[in-house]
Amino acid sequence: MRWVPWYVPHPLARSNRTKMPRKAALLAILLFVPASCGDGDPVSTAESRGYQSPGRSLRRECVNTRLFDESLILAAGEPRLESFDEFLLGEQVWILGETIAPAGWRRIPWAPTLERARLQLPSAGGVRVHIEAEYLAKSGMLPRDDDPTPKPGECVIARGWITRVRVERAQESLKLDYLARSEALRTLMGPLDSQERVMPREISFRGDSRRSIGFPAPTELVYEVTLPVAAQLDFGMARSNLYLASTADGLRSRVAPQGQVLFSVSVETEDGEVTEVWSGGIPANASNLFSDTSVDLSRWSGELVRLHIRIDTSQEDSQAGTAFGYLAEPLIWSAKEDLRPNLILVVLDTLRADRLGCYDYERAKTPHLDKLAQEGVLFKDTMSASSWTLPSHASIFTSTFPSQHGLWNDQRLPDSLDTVAEVLSDAGYRTAAITGHGFVKPAHGFARGFESFWGASVEAQETFDLCASWIAEQAAPYFLFAHTYQVHSPYDPAPEYRDGLVRPYDGPLGESVTLKDHKFGGNGNPPSEADIRYISDLYDAEVREVDDALGRFIERLEAQGELENTLLIVTSDHGEEFFEHGAAAHGRSLYQDQLHVPLIVYWKGHFEGGPAVEHTVHLVDIAPTLTKAAGLPAPPAWVGVPLGSEDGLGERPLYTPMLTRWSGRQTQGLQAVSVRLGSLKYVDYPAGLRPFDAIKGPALFDLSTDPFERNNLIDEESAARWAARAAQLRKRYPLLGEANSVQISAEELRELEMLGYAGSE
């Protein structure tokens, strides 16, 4: 007997659907657009995620099977709320079934950034009143235990958390049930497309971001897939509690979920046999934290099966809507031996090339990076795509210039561009990112293609410890992206790394220096020579500290045998300026102190013990290097050339366009550009961008004789020629997709301010 094309739901789901109105089915019956990887007419990876990406640049055959990108043939759950329609209305006030305008609202202060609103209720005793509260703001703070309780005849609505409030008045008792507002519920579950289908989204718990869907329990998902040889199912799971708060006789108490959120996986074969292969639960005290599991499905290798993933709650959680279960990036992969290399990309944010011993810096104390350069291959002349973090990382991930990906302010990567993590994940690589957050975060699109994306502002040693722990758990070839802000301002190296580098100083600067706090960057009085030397020394000590942390990480890889078949790339996204041209920090110029970055590549038998590479390479070359090592073609939109290949290099112009952000309002968003051709480098800035710079207007430098860019060779004829060349490159590398703006939260803004990114500098 053959299966029917679509699943016939079990009686529970069928009975629920007959009772519920159309919008009620939003949470109970969720049908996804069929998508596939392989033969036939596939829907692209981005399209199956709900991204709008017409003209996707590359359609790939998937080796790993991401269940979120497959046909979900059933998602059924038993509704717990009395009326989903009422729950989702959100912007009306209901009293005794009658819709009224919220004219009775008045706002009173509640916490530093929140408000409460009070609505007068009918005074008749014993009447039952039902309210749909207006959504006042987007914040998500729960009511606090010490918040004032409602007065008799009042309903208190907490801004940003409560939309639906049920009020029952019976003589002198007053009962309030706080439930999550509909927008919060949709945020928990995932975004909706135009047909109200819930799609996976990036959910972050404690810095760990993963593509996930949240479900009110009980919910059952059914996928129909053909399992590979030695099939394994890996997924993350989490729970989030929706607290209930109530008042009775003027007293407030919180009712928190007490039981477990239960997960189970069953396999249904074509003959109808159903076998539960795994089950587990998450207790209430482990909420808001992803945990991982792996399920062995090798018994059914090569078979077409239906996977049932069920989320439920234990009997202790009997109240409606008190807990959500999350399913994070369920992935089917083959555990058979795979000889492709592991791939590790390390970006040491803000690290100048000329502050390492392997780049001939005499004061350097970087023995681990220097050793790696000797054992691997050192690229002496590597150009960044930008002089600050966001556009540079976008270029690393997509092998495109900033003029193509469009990230220069607070944008998100265009969905039409393939990231290196997406290409590798589709080809069977396990993927993870462990970052310092800041501008390297999911909101900007950097989590695409990563099964797990962890970001937090921590020391380099903790970052690399997390990397080593993740690697130790991997069986299949993996791609790991590691990123740290250790070298970035504020400069505050540990005491043991200052010894021998930080020279005696008795000036006004403290033990820790944040450049923006002292108005360094051309906006204040220039510092003294002693100040500059002290700041530079602190930077060197930070470089020493990150070298030590990276060295311990590499030693762990060697001890575990990981470097026997691992391509390791260590680089930076940009450098740092120390008043070589009148200012400090980065992001407002295109001089070599910010564009010349280190690049060291090690891969036993491939990039090993060779002479340093003298010709100029670019950070856009990293992504195609990784995919070539994995035996994969590069997407057609990528402009980089694999490292180690002479093809396509020659006299290629290296293009660094920049839309100015870290500047005064008059110059924000204006074009700046750098073009490298051999040893010649052309730069041009908007008028007024760098008033503190001794060099005004367009400039031309010969880096072979003037590495510090002091002697401007530009004249009228060369200015016109190089300006035309820059315009030609801008035309050759236009914007490839819409880079939509993202909103920065108050917490994220504080994090960026700590790194020196705040307002105009």
Structure commentary:
The protein has 761 residues and is of the alpha+beta class. It has three domains: 11-83 and 184-334, Jelly Rolls, CATH 2.60.120; 91-180, no CATH class; 342-643 and 651-754, Alkaline Phosphatase, subunit A (3-Layer(aba) Sandwich). The chain has 16 helices and 37 strands. The strands form nine sheets. Strands 1, 11, 12, 14, 19, 21, 22, 23, 25, 26, 27, 28 and 32 form a 13-stranded mixed beta sheet that branches. It has a five-stranded antiparallel beta sheet with strand order 2-13-20-17-18, covered by helices on one side. A four-stranded antiparallel beta sheet has the order 34-35-36-37, covered by helices on one side. β17 and β18 (274-282) form a beta hairpin. The longest helix is centred in the C-terminal third of the chain and has 31 residues, at 529-559. The N and C termini lie far apart (70 Å). Mean pLDDT is 70; it is low at 1-62, 77-188, 192-197, 243-256, 317-321 and 662-669.
